[in-house]
């Protein structure tokens, strides 16, 4: 049963604290069928939120409902949801197939063989299914864990950092699978600390910073905010003062300062324009460019910027 | 439940763990052989054997340590490597997880303990020691079950369950129960000794002074075993799973 708003997951003023440490602070949001990305830097509280949703952790304050039920209200809910936790630990003595079979049997799946075959085929690991998990690469383990999480074809999939350790080809395959499930009306909540990982996949995002919900909604709107933020670059060149003067003539550059090591620190609010112009600018000024590197492209700075906005 | 039981057996039966507990269980057998070889002709041999090997080594040391090694790992390994969520995120009751975990520990520990008990009894006790072997096996089996319940709970309670178990065995079951006679009524060692003496008070008469009544031992064992089983279920229901 879902709420009247059509939300499959409802988080209502939820807080979680461990002693005096507040991990999640008064967070409210809804998740609907489709793919939603839960984004935030490491330590932001994403995993704690997902743990509460899955019933692995108690809610300190507020209310959490998944498919209309409280996650810790009874184990029956687990027939309808699939959870893949962040930790990559598996029973290394089991084969990949045995892991998925274990999940299927515990889920009470009727045709275990057929469902296990389907789940393993879906993650493209049929060739490796009889090898013990201890011999798997990180990406393969992640995919087999995903197969175990979805072997009972759940209505809601909660995936904590599912793309850790996967290569680009596996990511594309993962995206295809998630889109397919979403098209069948499933709710998929994917957490990540990497913006680009979720960008192509999720239409809706929830941005968590320091245990609080910093932004929620359409990914493109939030992404625009990110693209507008001032960007700090280090430019190392043969003649820093000449290069600084040339840079100051660009409208995309807000300020330039010279570090004691003679590198330039450039602040730009239009980094795309700066990227396009900087090579030509150096050539016109007859200055040899040695290095151009972003200084504050960490997720923490990106997320902080959104919060400050 | 069968699925979790089979998983637990495979978890517990790792080569290294099995090697450790087989070696532990072999110690009293080896000592029984030596005692039998060197001291069998002595007048108080049976008494010495009962006090040293059965009461001192098997019941006070080997039994709790073998069960501790297995039962704390039944949940402890999964808490430590964070695989416990693979079980609790499934539509099965917590009782259906705890019971096969407990049975798994008992299934691995019991044959070893019983085999060692039968072996030492047959090697060193008079008249083939058949009756004594049966009594000792029953008593130690009871000890396996109750210790398994206590240590399975400990494995879920703390990541330092082995240390907790050793402190419990040496301080409470060893020191406190020898200094304060009343503690025997709250000690798995007390239940095991009480059952052993109650089932064969002829062969094991030398432990009579330390043994509680058979009825008290059986009631105590059932109460403690069931209580710790329920505490484990409760703990699994309420804890934040890592």
Q: Would you mind describing this structure in some detail?
A:
The complex is a heterodimer of chains A (309) and B (242). Chain A is an alpha/beta fold and 309 residues long. Chain A has two domains: 218 residues, Rossmann fold (3-Layer(aba) Sandwich), CATH 3.40.50.300; 79 residues, Alpha-Beta Plaits (2-Layer Sandwich), CATH 3.30.70.100. Helix content of chain A is 35%, strand content 28%. Chain A contains ten helices and 13 strands. In chain A, the strands form three sheets. Chain A has a six-stranded mixed beta sheet with strand order 5-6-7-3-8-9, sandwiched between helices. In chain A, strands 11-12-10-13 form a four-stranded antiparallel beta sheet, covered by helices on one side. A three-stranded antiparallel beta sheet of chain A has the order 2-1-4, with helices on one face. In chain A, helix 2 crosses helix 3. Chain A starts with 8 loop residues before the first strand and ends with a helix. In chain A, 42% of the residues are buried. The mean pLDDT of chain A is 87. The two termini of chain B are 22 Å apart. The radius of gyration of chain B is 18 Å and the shape is globular. In chain B, helix 6 packs parallel to helix 9. With 242 residues, chain B is mostly helical. Chain B contains nine helices and no strands. Chain B has one domain. Classes of the chains: A alpha/beta (309), B mainly alpha (242).
What are the defining features of this structure?
heterodimer; A: 309 residues; alpha/beta; Rossmann fold; Alpha-Beta Plaits; 2 domains; six-stranded mixed sheet; four-stranded antiparallel sheet; B: 242 residues; mainly alpha; 79% helix; globular
